[in-house]
Amino acid sequence: MLYGMELKLANLLIGVLCLRCAIGENVISFLMKPKEYKIPLKNFNNDESGISLSCYDDGSYLLSIGGKPWLKSAPTFFNVEGQLYSTEDGTLKLQKITENAGTDRLGAWQSIEYWYSAGSVMVRTAFKGYPSLSGIIFEQSFPDGAQNTSVHNKDHLISGFPGFMIDDSIVDLGYLSYGYIFVGDMGKTIGRWKAANFTIRNGRNSGPMALFDKIGQNALFISPFDHFMSASALHQQRQGRYYWGIMGSVTQIDRKFAFRSIVYYGSGINNVGAYYVNYYVKGGLIENMTYEQAILHVKDYADALSIPYRSVQYSVWFKQGKYGGNGLWSASKLLFPNGMKSPDTPYAKVNGGKYHFFVEKMYALPYEEKFWTDMFAESQQFGFKTYMQDWLNKQFDEMEVTTNNTHVARTWLMQMGEGARKNDITIQYCMSESRHILQSLEIPVVTQARILIVARASDDYQPNDPVQWRIGISSMFTYAVGLTPFKDTFWTTTYQPHNYYHGTEPYPALHLVISILSTGPVGPGDMLNHTDVKLLMRGVGDSTAFGGELGPRGEVWTTYSDIGLWRFGIIFATDMKNEYSIGPSSAHFGKQFPKSKIYTSNPNFTPEDFSDTQPIVIKKNCSKSDLCLFYTTPVFTFGGEELLLLGELTKYVPVSPQRILNIQWDTADFTLQIRGAASERVTLTYLLGSQRSEVTCIVSEAGTAVLSIRDGRCYQL
Q1: Which of 81, 351, 362, 561 has the greatest number of beta carbons closer than 10 A?
Q2: Do 633 and 685 form a contact (C-beta atoms < 8 A)?
Q3: Distance (Å, rounded) from C-alpha 159 to C-alpha 157?
Q4: Measured between alpha carbons, how far is 58 from 93 in angstroms, rounded to an integer?
Q5: Who's near 152: CB < 8 A, 6+ residues apart?
């Protein structure tokens, strides 16, 4: 298990909820008869408002927050040797309870272990606590292995631990459960933690779940902690129970296998970066042209209008095999008459190739790292940079080899990631289920912390789709595990002649802003000669797309850009039904948010003080056609006067670390180091006292310039 994966999951999953808590300490109490056990546990409060777990000698347990019960255990069960064993009917027999302690990659830990007999098979469950971790790890293992475990249902479980009763008589809670595809967005459910109302996606389509109280100050996140591809959730509706365990179609368990899940309490959100603007092929380019001719025309069109596309996505360009699938990973002659530089050989050994594949009736799965390494290496010949793995749900859900064991699906994705790492290739996951998103935590690193993986966070774009742009909830999941969400492509103009959809797009600006603020790829997919360049350039520079770090809030989204020690906030509102008051804390701009003022790109708007006691009130007139964007700037002082940096007011993100690399400030001068394309003109606005100034910088051939507030001018570097 990779340390980085464990640490990210432990520290970041609760970022989905963006709680506001202070760090302190508490303990897990394991209450047994007649002895009481205490395990040190990091928590987010200095008082008794943290998490605790009581365990009893009959195998039951009770999880509490702030001393108040939240979750009562459901019976533990395991299916082995073709039979179900459960604590409910006494067939799963508790043999002994032991204490243990040690140190691993997360630090020192202590645990209470329950040893059961399921017929002739020994089963172990454990509750594990770390002083450094604000959560409880639940572990299940089979010390001698287990055979004939399958219940012959991919959407059921062969084991149930942990399990919780869905009981609103204990405490009134809400829940958010991720499910199905597009980062769990297509099957997400939100509602009351109440047996009569509770519903989730079971089994293969299941995902992590958040529980929260009425005021939103306390929340739990329940998720697998490892073996994500073989772990599933189960809702037993009639009994009112919720479980995590091992997928129901797994036929046997190795003695070395242990599955861990976590109930986590805390706060945190991950940082993500911005992408360049890319052209995405969507629904056809132009009539009476081959794919190859159309792509070349896109290049000429972009050059003529100075559209800074940094890449082009080729969609469904390969040679088809049976059932319309990918037969050979090389260019179709119908689409690319002149071809591409790429290999043209069968891959699977069973078909005469040199790589190991699992081949089933409708699907095949590469199962050799060398396949990915060689394929990605060959692709370098034509400038290949990003590989998109589509139909992840079908590949996993509908193959036997991915669902009847605990290792093949994980190994497949790990091999893909390693091949990408060796060739400096990024990966985009499409139609990913929650398990794929969690598994990405283990993918090897390439540059900074890990390989860069993008995940589609929405359904396919179609013009005038009323919900496709709403990626707030799925984005929270991707940020929590360190991925970048992708909204899918969009149109920059309302009317596109002879389009595939026979439709129009009434809100191009909305889709552009969502793409930018998500910090994922900005991917217009207009028909040839129908790009609104002026609109597109509001979101991009001559070489890059602008973005920050996102914390979406339904239809009020917040994001920020950090430049050195300084935080510049953005508040975006659309489709408002009521007025909404928001300050730095509710915008989750952080405890170190500096004294700031808020402004808009409207030159007639005077910057106002912005604090929790002086929030901005967002009006109901913020709509999909009339977007509301508010920006915050720290209040600087230079030369005895107040200095406000308003940035590039022609952009949707006026102050971005993609543009302003550094701020240097002393008594002699206040300077901004600027980045851009060679000869690019960058106009920045600032207020010094009551004087509003605009300075245009011309970027040097080296791609940099420096703005001096003292001199009121720019210098090339």
Answers
A1: 561
A2: no
A3: 5
A4: 10
A5: 248, 249
3-state secondary structure 134-150: CEEEEEEECCCCECCCC
Q: What is the mean pLDDT of residues 485-494?
A: 84
549 close to 304: Cβ distance less than 8 angstroms:
no
Whether residue 425 contacts residue 435, with contact meaning beta carbons closer than 8 Å, is answered with: no
Cβ-based neighbours of 699, under 8 Å, separated by 6 or more: 674, 675, 676, 677, 678, 679, 680, 681, 682, 705, 716
Q: Evaluate whether 61 touches 70 at the Cβ level (below 8 Å).
A: no
The whole-chain average pLDDT of the chain stands at: 80
Report the 10 Å Cβ neighbour count for 254: 13
Q: Please give the single-letter amino acid code of residue 682.
A: V
Q: What is the pLDDT of residue 140?
A: 98
Q: How far apart are CA 76 and CA 246, in angstroms?
A: 13
d(CA 552, CA 573): 10
In order, the DSSP letters of 667-699 are SS-EEEEEE-STT-EEEEEEEETTEEEEEEEE-
- Structure-token pair, residue 634: 């720290």
Report the distance separating Cα 355 and Cα 419, nearest Å: 14
Contact assessment for residue 537 and residue 545, using Cβ atoms and an 8 Å cutoff:
no
Q: Dihedral (C-alpha) 149, 150, 154, 155: value to the nearest 10 degrees?
A: -60
248 vs 580: CA distance, rounded Å:
46
Can you tell me whether residue 276 is helix, strand or coil?
coil
Question: According to the per-residue pLDDT averaged within each range, which of 337-341, 379-383, 568-572 is highest?
Answer: 568-572
What are the structural domains of the chain? 24-264 (2.70.98.10), 278-551 (3.20.20.70), 639-717 (no CATH)
Residue 607 DSSP code? P
Pair 235, 202: CB distance under 8 Å: yes
CB 309 within 8 A of CB 277: yes
Name, in order, each residue with C-beta under 8 angstroms of 233's C-beta and a sequence gap of 6 or more: 177, 200, 202, 203, 206, 207, 209, 242, 243, 244
* CB neighbour burial string for 391-407, b if at least 16 within 10 angstroms, e if fewer: bbbebbbbbebbbbbbe
Give the up-direction half-sphere exposure of residue 478: CA atoms within 13 A in the CB hemisphere. Answer: 36
The proportion of the chain whose per-residue pLDDT surpasses 70, expressed as a percent, equals: 76
Q: Which residue type occupies 703?
A: G
Q: How confident is the model at residue 395 (pLDDT cuts 50, 70, 90)?
A: very high
pTM of the model: 0.76
Could you give the CA distance from residue 153 to residue 82 in angstroms, rounded to a whole number?
A: 13
Residue 509 dihedral angles phi and psi, to the nearest 5°? -65, -35
Closest CA relative to residue 297, chosen from 536, 542, 537, 531: 531
Length of the chain: 717
The C-alpha atoms of residue 690 and residue 668 are separated, in whole angstroms, by: 20
- Reduced 3-state DSSP string for 691-715: EEEEEEEECCCCCEEEEECCCCEEE
Q: Which two tokens stand for residue 217?
A: 């100050």
Q: Could you tell me if 123 and 79 are in contact, meaning their C-beta atoms sit under 8 angstroms apart?
A: no
Q: Is the peptide bond before 615 cis (omega within 30 degrees of 0)?
A: no
DSSP string, 611-635: SSSSPEEEPTT--SSS-EEEEEEE-
Q: Are strands 121-129 and 107-118 parallel, antiparallel or unpaired?
A: antiparallel
Query: Averaged over 604-629, what is the pLDDT?
Result: 92
Q: Give how far Cα 310 sits from Cα of 95, 197, 299, 380, 540, Å.
A: 63, 48, 10, 16, 11
pLDDT digits (tens, 9 = 90+) for 349-362: 656 678 999 989 88
Integer CA distances (angstroms), 164 to 161, 508, 550, 717, in order: 9, 45, 32, 62
Taking phi over 0 as left and psi of -120 to 50 as alpha, with beta for the rest, 656 belongs to beta
Cα–Cα distance, 601 to 603 (Å, whole number):
6
Please give the backbone phi and psi of residue 478, each rounded to the nearest 5 degrees, phi first.
-65, -40
